[in-house]
Amino acid sequence: MPNISDLKSRTRADYPYIMEYRTRWNDNDMYDHMNNSIYNFLYDSVINTYLIEQCGLHPPSSQQYGMVVHSHNDYFAPISFPACAELALRVNRIGNSSVTYEIALFEKGKVEVRSVGEFVQVFVDRATARPSPQGMDPKLRKGLERILVKGCTSRL
């Protein structure tokens, strides 16, 4: 796991997939910055957008779906409406049925990273809600491997 100084030094170039999000008025809280619950919503959205667009996941009919088993976030600087957020995604680890994502949030037009979070999903069979003995669907794995960072290994 990277330390805080490594996370604070992240740049957009560290992430192979980036999605924009236009902040909304109701994303702000009473402190005039985006509420921490919105970060989790956005992280989940960029992950699922990638899975649908790049890995062939079709949530209503897929045999497997990703269940979040762990998440956390480190906040470095606020972002507020009316900013445009850039959500940057990479995979740090792929296991037999699990994947560890790293998501960074940048503000469009600003260099420094605003936050970096981690989500761990376990892909489970829809019928049993348990990991498949055969592991992750091969098409899904192939899509995730496209954004796996160099130096990280996939455990099969």
TrEMBL record:
Q: Give the keywords, sorted.
A: Hydrolase
Q: Which residues cross the membrane?
A: none
Question: Does the keyword Hydrolase belong to this entry?
Answer: yes
User: What CDD domains does the entry give?
Assistant: 4HBT (cd00586)
* Highest rank taxon of the organism: Eukaryota
An example of a GO molecular function for this protein is:
fatty acyl-CoA hydrolase activity
What PANTHER family does the database record attribute to this sequence? 4-HYDROXYBENZOYL-COA THIOESTERASE FAMILY MEMBER (PTHR31793), NOVEL THIOESTERASE SUPERFAMILY DOMAIN AND SAPOSIN A-TYPE DOMAIN CONTAINING PROTEIN (0610012H03RIK) (PTHR31793:SF27)
Q: Which family does it belong to?
A: Belongs to the 4-hydroxybenzoyl-CoA thioesterase family.
Q: What is this protein called?
A: Thioesterase domain-containing protein
What organism is recorded for this protein? Thermothielavioides terrestris (strain ATCC 38088 / NRRL 8126)
